[in-house]
Amino acid sequence: QRETFAAREKMQRIKDEFRKWIWQDEARADRLAALYNQEYNNLRLREYDGSHLTLPGMNPAIKLRQHQLNDVWRILTSGNKLVAHQVGAGKTGDLIAAAMELKRLGLATKPMVIVPNHLVEQWGAEWHRFYPAANILVTTKNDFTPKNRKQLLARIATGNWDGVIVAQSHFTMIPVKDETFNAFLNEQINQLENYIRDARAERQGTRLIKELEKAKRRLEAKLRRREAGIQREEIFTFEELGVDSIFLDESQSAKNLYVTSKMTRVAGVPTTESSRAFDMFVKTRHVYQLQNKQRGVVFATGTPVTNTMAELFNIQRYLQPQVLEEKGLTHFDAWANAFGEEVTAVEMAVTGGYRPKTRFARFVNMPELIQMVRQVMDVKTQKDLNLPVPKLKGGGPTTVEAPPPPGLKAFIESLDKRAEAIRQGGVDPRNDNYLKLTTDGRNAAVDMRLVDPGASDYANSKLNLMVRQIGKVYRQWSKDKGTQIVFLDLSTPKGKETVVPEPDAQAQEVETTEETGLRDTLYGDIKRKLVKQGIKADEIAFIHGAKKPEDRIRLFANMNTGKVRVLIGSTEKMGTGMKVQRRHVALHHLDVPWRPADVEQRNGRILRQGNELWERDPDKFEVEIYHYVTQESFDVSMWQTIERKARFIAQALSGDLNIRALEDLDEMVLTA
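Now predict its structure.
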């Protein structure tokens, strides 16, 4: 290990010396500067003004804001785009208006909008609100059952639709032609073969070659599985539907697109892959080709970068493939060499020792990268838009600290021992691993009863502090029926879950239904304690019980009218798209989510337009966001990491061309 440290330190010194040397020769410096200016320093971002748009067919009672009109005009004139506006900025309206204008002007024949599963019906209602006469097809879960899918795809293919709305999970059920799939996969395999050939020629080590060959075999297996599993149904493929424009809402769902890279053992390189992202990439590539490599793909999200700046590469693969090709940056390693550096540092391990860790963590040439990406990505923050949203009390979240419960310290020490055993390789990964260890640590930070069935209900746990705070806010806003949301990703309801009450349901009946199958979850515990705080049982709801579209519509309506005063749910089910802000007064983070984007999406439920209490008194009305933290637990470091990473992402996307380099470190580290 000492020799490894020394070698890495020497390598860094060589890099530093090279940076000095390369500019010492005047002729070489002039040549490189000219090359740089020709290839990269040649962009002036265009400004878009859509104030002249009239938008025929739109509901005259609806007026888009200036930034929305600019968005529509940009999509019409520039093609592929990522609408990266502040959560709650009205991206739904942007996409609907753009789709209708593309269709009206003959720039698109059949736009398809892919949205989160729980927002399909909401999108359909919004579309008809914006364009009452629009001819849209809102697909349902039932449409994609094996017996109905053939009929649905035939309707899509033969109908003259202004828009087709499809859930993200259902979109993957629409098949592509074998030729399309095989051509794409073979392209990826060829890339890996080139990497393997280069690695052997450069004698880069057997470990790297083995890992590249393993990745190649994985892709080949995927190709064989498809061949073996194809059901030769007589149904339309995606290419035959006539879809020539794709709009993807909450596009962060497609970020896990696998990249081929020689940096196989470097943290921060996007090596995870999802079938959803792979399917989206294949289909967007097809649409992009249909539109003569000019337009056809529009993404929208309030959180374009969820965890690392390397995600920008995949955004460019979706939306700027031509630009990457022109600049020789199609391969991730070429892109990484231009805009990033590996950083090797000594970090503190879970067990308290030290170990070297190499990360793709330093981003350089930021002005050139941001200028290039901003050709397709339009970033707008609350500061840019000045949206009419409520002010946050105190200017930021309120942190509520709970003392460590009995047994927490001993449990954390047991995690250290488990971590050491995992590091030594003496544990079967199926029985214990770092992810399971981290999950146990997060559970203990929320409530010791989640990791120790014999633990008592600690009176000053953060759960109990939250319950008391919710009761206080409930009573404070009883006259206005102020509503509150609780986010909790752990101990979510399973099995028989709550149903959304009809408006005339009896409180006692609702309570009985919800308690069935929920006694062992924190959700049920929170509800029982809230009832003791004086909140009626039928004023408390769980998002997990709103399984059917009509349940969700009714639940959201009940929140907006104040019939439901407290809504409890997870980031996955409530973090995106949910519009229940009309009487929203407080939001509670009981646990810490994994990524800064999750916090942004959660907070977007309350920091958004349409709060009636704020509209009544814009100067004095304030909302509250609470962070609940258990001292001496995983909570502290997780909140610190998320806040540090959120600042990094915000700085990177700010568009400040004076920032040439940024450090992105996932954890606390010490330099060598």
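The first strand starts at residue 81 and ends at 85.
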